[in-house]
Amino acid sequence: MPSVVQRFAAPRSKVAAFTYDLSTATGSQAVTGVGFKPRAIIFMGAVSSGVGAWGMVGNDLADGAVSSLVVDTFYPSGDAIIAVTVSGSLQQAVVASYDADGFTLTWTKTGAPTGTATLYALCFE
Description:
Elements: E1 13-21, E2 27-32, E3 40-47, E4 53-58, E5 69-71, E6 81-86, E7 89-99, E8 102-110, E9 116-124
Parallel strand pairs: 5-6
Antiparallel strand pairs: 1-9, 2-8, 3-4, 3-9, 6-7, 7-8
C-alpha cells in the first residue's frame, strides 16, 4: 500500500511587542500591526521590577483560553492575563476581540498597581 504524505502550510505568525502602564484606569488597549486576525496568541511578559511568565489564548476555543498569564506571580485565572505588583494590587486583562490587524485587550484595575508591564504576543493566523 503506498504511503500518503500530506503537506500542510505552516501557520503565519508574528510577534507583537507592547507595554501597559499598570497605574492606568480600567479600559481597553488595541494592539495592532499584526497583519492578520489571530486565531491563537501566546503571551509572554514581565512587570518592570519582576519575573516574567507566559500564557496562551485562542479565539476558536470553547472557553477562549488554554492557560493564564500572570506577571510576577503565576496562579490559575481562567482566560485572564494578570499583572500583579503588590498584594491586592493588579491589572487583569482578557482578550476582548480578535481584530483584522491584531487584538483588543480589556484591562481591569484592582487596588493601586504601579510599574510597566512589557508584553510580547506571539500571534498565529
